[in-house]
């Protein structure tokens, strides 16, 4: 979730990796996460309410602290240890609330990816949440194969399809991170870019995607354009327009995903461009949602049919191999991942 989603005294339910979880923020501002089931009669704790530093079950008033410890059972002094519920490590960083669903001893907040643009006054940003009826890996695939932009987003950020399919593409892989870089020199800017950058002619355009799942299931997409020949591909982008999309992909079930994402831009705030840009890119992501859910419906209809690879799948294939390797490394000895 976003930090702003939870004010002191609020709670919310989420299903993550098929497990029901309740997130809540105490009166002192601490965020906690518990298994969303009261140990007494299985009431969802997300239906309860926060009182000071505890979360109270709405059924019989059983109370729990952020550690999952049952702190009070009305009408009795003794609290059996079995009344405790599972807690999950949580951490806030750069306006995101992170949760660790595995062994608490292996939780390491220092490994969480940074998104400093959320706190940088030079950037404007807007948060969004979508519940997408599609498997989480389809969302990752979608961001790592940006050739789809030419068709799915033809009316917004697409531009000429030939520009996308003839782009200069490199895929780097170091065993932990997949980086996709697409260069589209001397191309016609889409209308969204013209609005943001004020371009009068063709541009040198780029799209860079970074995906390092060990630091959190987030993809960072740096995209933008500069006037032709002004140094966009040598790192001189001050004269242009930069758009950063941060895509947080949180699996809910095998066929549904919490899509927690932001749009950030360095376009001047006083120009009014960021707000117009955010509205237009929201429409763009809605186009992705429609496409992804259509994919999932057909996969559900034909679960035994395999995908056929094409040339633009390079980064997608690397990412899937990386995730498969991580899954295999975590599997119990002798077990299939």
Architecture overview:
With 337 residues, this protein is an alpha+beta fold. It contains seven helices and 17 strands. The protein has helices at 136-144, 149-152, 154-158, 161-165, 191-197, 273-301, 314-330; strands spanning 11-16, 19-25, 31-35, 49-51, 54-56, 63-64, 70-72, 87-88, 90-93, 96-99, 124-132, 168-173, 178-187, 203-211, 218-227, 241-253, 256-265. The protein has a seven-stranded antiparallel β-sheet. The chain has a four-stranded antiparallel β-sheet with strand order 1-2-3-8, with no helix packed on it. A hairpin with a 6-residue loop joins strand 14 and strand 15 (218-227). The longest helix is centred in the last third of the chain and has 29 residues, at 273-301. It is globular, with a radius of gyration of 23 Å. The mean pLDDT is 92.
């Amino acid at each position: 979730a976003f930090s702003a989603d939870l004010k002191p005294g609020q709670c919310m339910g989420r299903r993550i990796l098929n497990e029901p979880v309740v997130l809540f923020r105490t009166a002192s501002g601490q965020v906690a996460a518990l298994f969303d089931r009261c140990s007494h009669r299985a009431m969802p704790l997300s239906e309860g309410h926060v009182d000071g530093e505890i979360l109270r079950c709405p059924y019989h008033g059983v109370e729990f602290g952020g550690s999952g410890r049952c702190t009070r059972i009305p009408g009795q002094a003794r609290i059996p240890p079995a009344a405790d519920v599972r807690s999950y490590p949580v951490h806030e960083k750069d306006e995101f609330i992170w949760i660790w669903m595995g062994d608490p001893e292996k939780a390491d907040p220092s490994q969480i990816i940074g998104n400093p643009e959320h706190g940088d006054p030079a950037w404007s940003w807007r948060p969004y949440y979508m519940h997408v009826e599609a498997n989480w890996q389809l969302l990752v695939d979608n961001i790592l194969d940006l050739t789809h932009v030419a068709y799915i987003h033809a009316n917004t950020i697409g531009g000429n399809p030939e520009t996308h399919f003839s782009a200069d593409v490199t895929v780097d892989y170091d065993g932990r991170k997949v980086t996709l870089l697409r260069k589209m020199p001397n191309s016609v800017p889409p209308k969204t870019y013209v609005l943001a950058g004020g371009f009068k002619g063709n541009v040198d355009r780029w799209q860079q995607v970074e995906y390092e799942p060990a630091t959190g299931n987030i993809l960072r997409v740096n995209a933008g354009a500069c006037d032709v020949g002004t140094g966009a591909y040598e790192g001189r982008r001050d004269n242009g327009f930069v758009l950063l999309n941060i895509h947080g992909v949180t699996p809910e079930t095998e066929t549904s995903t919490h899509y927690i994402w932001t749009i950030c831009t360095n376009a001047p705030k006083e120009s009014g461009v960021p707000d117009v840009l955010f509205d237009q890119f929201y429409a763009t992501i809605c186009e992705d949602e429609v496409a992804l859910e259509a994919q999932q419906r057909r996969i559900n209809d034909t679960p035994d049919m395999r995908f056929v690879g094409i040339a633009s799948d390079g980064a997608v294939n690397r990412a899937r191999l990386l995730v498969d390797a991580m899954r295999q490394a975590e599997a119990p000895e002798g077990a299939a991942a």
